[in-house]
């Protein structure tokens, strides 16, 4: 029998709580739900107002994975959705998660949370820039840290402040809070930064996606600023054998990184990190920290 629980007045059917989702650590679905309840105060502000895409992995990382933008069948009527027209469906809607019941409902589906860089009320008008630093083997997140520090300084020269998080996979994400600007302009500026990074660090950086160019280098992926693209949200678990989190990090941690394992954070690491640091990405939510595109 599927247990029914009540979360802030909403009744939820939470299924298969003993099912192992992350096999390397034996992490169960029930532990995943507990994790999301624990980080909800930090996670929800980063999801609020943004139409979500889900990477679903209900049978773990070794099972079927599929990307979903439309609200799944059986979505409760109280889960908020927003109209997000697409070229193939002008009436398409996507889920917006803004409260704990909606978060628990979505987490019960076993998903990665992915968001665009804009809010549903202002589509294709970005309030942040993101750069995805993706290392090509044998490069690692240590090399991403070197690139991140270069980009931080370059952004600072334009009066913009960068904040870092792990991708939860191999690399790192940099976020910059912006005075809202058209996504097309933000993407053009992000590409310019990636090109400049490659020019200044040619042995370390590549700005083009071609896999033949990427071994031993860090691909600075600027494309996620395209209005149609999304990025793994802060604090989301990733579909990996270990319950790796896309975790905010301090610049001191980036500067000191000499061992890739130092920037791997699992589900169990996050409660103590939040006690020690709070939400390191909170400045992204403060309009006073937003800078204008140059």
Automatic annotation (TrEMBL):
InterPro entries in the cross-refs: LigD_pol_dom (IPR014145), MtLigD_Pol-like (IPR033649), NHEJ_LigD (IPR052171)
Gene3D superfamilies with a match to the protein in the record: DNA primase, PRIM domain
Keywords: Ligase
CDD domains documented for this protein: MtLigD_Pol_like
Molecular function (Gene Ontology), one example: ligase activity
Domain DNA ligase D polymerase stretches: 28-280
Highest taxon of source: Bacteria
A Pfam family it matches: LigD_Prim-Pol
Protein name: ATP-dependent DNA ligase
Source lineage: Bacteria, Bacillati, Actinomycetota, Actinomycetes, Kitasatosporales
């Amino acid at each position: 029998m599927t247990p029914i629980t009540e979360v802030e007045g909403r009744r939820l059917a939470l299924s298969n709580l003993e099912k192992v989702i992350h096999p390397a650590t034996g992490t169960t679905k029930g532990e995943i739900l507990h994790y999301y309840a624990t980080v909800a105060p930090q996670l929800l502000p980063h999801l609020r107002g943004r139409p979500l895409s889900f990477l679903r992995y209900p049978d773990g990382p070794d099972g079927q994975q599929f990307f979903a933008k439309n609200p799944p069948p059986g979505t409760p009527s109280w889960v908020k959705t927003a109209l997000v027209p697409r070229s193939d469906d002008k009436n398409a809607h996507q889920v917006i998660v803004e409260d704990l019941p909606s978060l628990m409902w979505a987490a019960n589906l076993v998903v990665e949370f992915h968001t665009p860089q804009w809010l549903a009320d202002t589509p294709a008008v970005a309030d942040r820039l993101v750069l995805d630093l993706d290392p090509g083997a044998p490069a690692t997140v240590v090399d991403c840290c070197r690139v991140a520090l270069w980009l931080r300084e370059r952004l600072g020269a334009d009066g913009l402040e960068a904040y870092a998080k792990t991708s939860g996979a191999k690399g790192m994400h940099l976020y910059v809070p912006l005075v809202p600007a058209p996504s097309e302009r933000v993407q053009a500026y992000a590409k310019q930064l990636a090109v400049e990074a490659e020019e200044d660090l040619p042995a370390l950086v590549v700005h083009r996606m071609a896999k033949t160019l990427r071994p031993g280098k860090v691909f600075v992926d600027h494309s996620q600023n395209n209005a149609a693209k999304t990025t793994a949200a802060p604090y989301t678990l990733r579909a990996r054998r270990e319950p790796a989190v896309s975790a905010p990090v301090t610049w001191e941690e980036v500067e000191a990184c000499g061992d890739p394992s130092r920037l791997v954070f699992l589900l169990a690491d996050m409660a103590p990190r939040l006690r020690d640091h709070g939400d390191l990405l909170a400045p992204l939510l403060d309009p006073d920290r937003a800078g204008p595109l140059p």
